[in-house]
Amino acid sequence: MRRRSFALLLATGALGACTSRSTGRPAVAATARNAVADDYRWFTMAPDFGEGYCFTWVRGLVPQQVIKRLDGKELERISWEQLVGSGDGQQPPSFQYFVGIARVDDWSLIVEDNGDLGVTDEIVRPLSAGTTVIAHQRGADGHGRFLQVSDGAVVLDFDPIAPATVTTEMAAAGFAPGIDADTSMAAAFALAERLTGEEMTKLLLITRTYLLTRVRPGSRKNQ
User: Fold this and answer.
1) SS3 per-residue string spanning 108-150
2) CB 125 within 8 A of CB 149
3) 15: helix, coil or strand?
4) 13, 31, 156, 198 — which has fewest CB within 10 A?
5) Strand (E) positions, the chain?
6) What's the confidence (pLDDT) of residue 32?
7) Are strands 210-215 and 153-158 parallel, antiparallel or unpaired?
8) d(Cα 174, Cα 139) in Å, to the nearest integer?
9) To the nearest 5 percent, what fractions of the chain are helix, strand and coil?
10) Cα–Cα–Cα angle for 215, 141, 144, nearest 5°?
């Protein structure tokens, strides 16, 4: 897979700081700050996700456990620079996925350069068994999905650029009716931080080692 360096963004000084739904308010993790959209404006300058992205947090599982639940195959250990930039995280016609998985405190973080594995119901529901999965995805057209699933039950599900309703916690993160594309993207990161208690910084992303993993949905039942 072709990869592109993340160095350009660093050099410019941009390195800063499911069908059924529940109507319940998502539980908020203990966090050192109340993140807002402005805390993630830096991501709108990132050149590495021109085709879209998906970030998925899985609580309480190490990357190897995540790979097992996904019925994936670990290919190699790679850096951030090797993981992002080419937009080939999801490949037709079989729609196999290539994702990077890293450990962040009590969570595993799945990173997709152009993919929607983390917001695909038949994948996320089993992945969330006995735990919580929080994912936010964006396509090249700006639309996407924010999803919180706990033990198979959908707690929160909406398109960040066009949420049908805005809860109090969503509003606090920066969501509002008629939200623009850049603000919706930043607000999704802020809401994810509020729910996980994990601040996503560029330094965190570029210093992690990722397990490059191939996932072929439905491969197990087709064997």
Assistant:
1) EEEEEECCCHHHCHHHHHHHCCCCEEEEEEEECCCCEEEEEEE
2) yes
3) coil
4) 13
5) 52-59, 73-78, 90-91, 96-104, 107-113, 132-139, 144-150, 153-158, 210-215
6) 62
7) unpaired
8) 20
9) 30, 25, 45
10) 55
Q: Which residue has the tokens 């996932």?
A: 215
CB-based contacts of 18, cutoff 8 Å, min separation 6: 121, 124, 125, 147, 149, 154, 157
* 125 contacts 152 by C-beta, under 8 angstroms: yes
C-beta atoms surrounding 223 within 10 Å? 6
Per-residue b or e along 156-180, where b marks 16 or more CB atoms closer than 10 Å to that residue's CB: bbbebbebeebbebbebbbbeeebe
Question: CB under 8 Å to 27, separation ≥6 — which residues?
Answer: 155, 195
The Cα 126–Cα 15 span in angstroms is 36
pLDDT of residue 124: 96
- 60 SS3 class: coil
Parts of the chain with a pLDDT under 70: 1-32, 45-50, 85-94, 219-223
For residues 188 and 136, the answer to whether their CB atoms sit within 8 Å is: yes
* pLDDT tens by residue, 17-65: 333 333 334 455 544 689 999 999 988 766 666 678 999 999 999 999 9
C-alpha to C-alpha distances, 121 to 2, 77, 86, 133, 187, nearest whole angstrom: 29, 27, 25, 11, 22
What CA–CA distance (Å, rounded) separates 75 from 58? 20
137 strand-pairing partners: 54, 145
